């Protein structure tokens, strides 16, 4: 195991490689960042936990792509949680939110064991989509697949099988394992580096190495993935030391929303004039960011200014 400068053990992506078997991987550890995002809303526990998984999955998947911009993961379903959105920028800014139906959720959760709070129960039938936005005048990459699996990790595996571009495995965990019952999350992803000439030329021992590494990854427990006392290097060493795991520089992550008063003004300015005029009649208008729950108040003078800027 190579030594690397360790600036912390939370809110980071720890890339690693298992060179003998041409495997690349990432360990994601989230502490204060995930707690902040999930605590910004008064989500019921099962919604917060699943949104935490979605955010962790977004970070794990984003690391598999070369891009400069925003990676967004979205689920839509006919269950109690109708929408989840999680996004991560290449600079490591994270955010996410969920929309749910409280009555449906209560009915679904009543009598269900904690272990049964699955994707089919909470999200229902629907799809999971991945988008990469690299700014104006660039192509948007989008992948979309129906929700098939008990967990979001299983849904991601289904996506890998469909896309056939990526051979990979993922493990995710979210829980109130931090100090004072704060949220923590962990994610592991292993992927094969495609050999030149395609997968069919892979030697038997490399094929065996891939299978063994996947078994070792799945042996990581949900507790280990979020354990604040088990640093990333310790966990990777515990799992893969016999395979010759090498760690690389970490990438920091933080909870940071991209909303601002200016951005919301741009949205308001795109509203039809009569809608703005109606808001003006009501007096002050409050716009709340769904991601971070920050409220922006536009008083009558602000709305007058927006109205006159339109004409
Ligand atoms: Zn915001």
Identify low-pLDDT runs. Answer: 1-6
- Secondary-structure element series: EEHHEEEHHEEHEEHHHEEEHHEEH
Q: What bound compounds does this protein have?
A: zinc ion
Strand content is 25-35%
The biggest sheet amounts to: 6 strands, antiparallel
Mean pLDDT: 90
Cα end-to-end separation: 64 Å
Short description:
The chain has 311 residues and is of the alpha+beta class. Helix content is 35%, strand content 28%. The chain is globular.
Walk me through this protein's architecture.
The chain is of the alpha+beta class. The chain has eleven helices and 14 strands. The strands form three sheets. Strands 1, 2, 8, 9, 10 and 11 form a six-stranded antiparallel sheet that branches. It has a six-stranded mixed sheet with strand order 7-6-3-4-5-12. The termini are far apart. Mean pLDDT is 90; it is low at 1-6. The structure holds zinc ion. Zinc ion binds at residues 257, 259, 289, 291-292, 294.
């Amino acid at each position: 195991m190579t030594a690397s400068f360790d600036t912390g053990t939370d809110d980071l992506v720890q890339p690693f490689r298992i060179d003998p078997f041409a495997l690349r991987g990432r360990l994601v550890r989230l502490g204060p960042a995930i707690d902040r995002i999930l605590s910004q809303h008064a989500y019921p526990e099962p919604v917060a936990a699943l949104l935490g998984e979605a955010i962790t999955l977004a970070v794990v998947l984003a690391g598999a792509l070369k891009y400069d911009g925003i990676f967004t993961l979205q689920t839509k379903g006919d269950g109690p949680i109708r929408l989840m959105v999680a996004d991560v920028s290449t600079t490591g800014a994270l955010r996410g939110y969920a929309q749910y139906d409280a009555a449906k959720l209560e009915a679904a959760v009543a009598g269900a064991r904690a272990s049964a709070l699955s994707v089919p129960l909470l999200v229902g039938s629907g799809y999971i989509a991945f988008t990469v936005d690299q700014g104006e005048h660039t192509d948007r990459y989008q992948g979309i697949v129906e929700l098939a699996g008990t967990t979001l990790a299983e849904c991601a595996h289904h996506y890998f099988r469909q896309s056939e571009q990526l051979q990979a495995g993922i493990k995710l965990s979210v829980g109130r394992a931090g100090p004072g019952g704060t949220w923590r999350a962990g994610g592991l992803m292993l992927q094969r580096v495609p050999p030149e000439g395609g997968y069919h030329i892979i030697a038997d021992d490399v094929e065996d190495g891939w299978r063994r590494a996947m078994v070792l990854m799945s042996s990581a427990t949900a507790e280990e993935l979020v354990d604040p006392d088990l640093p990333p290097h310790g966990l990777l060493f515990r799992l893969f030391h016999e395979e010759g795991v090498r760690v690389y520089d970490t990438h920091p992550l933080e909870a940071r929303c991209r909303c601002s008063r200016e951005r919301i003004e741009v949205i308001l300015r795109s509203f039809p004039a009569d809608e703005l005029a109606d808001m003006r009649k009501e007096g002050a208008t409050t716009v709340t960011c769904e991601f971070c729950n920050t409220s922006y108040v536009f008083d009558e003078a602000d709305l007058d200014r927006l109205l006159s800027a339109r004409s």
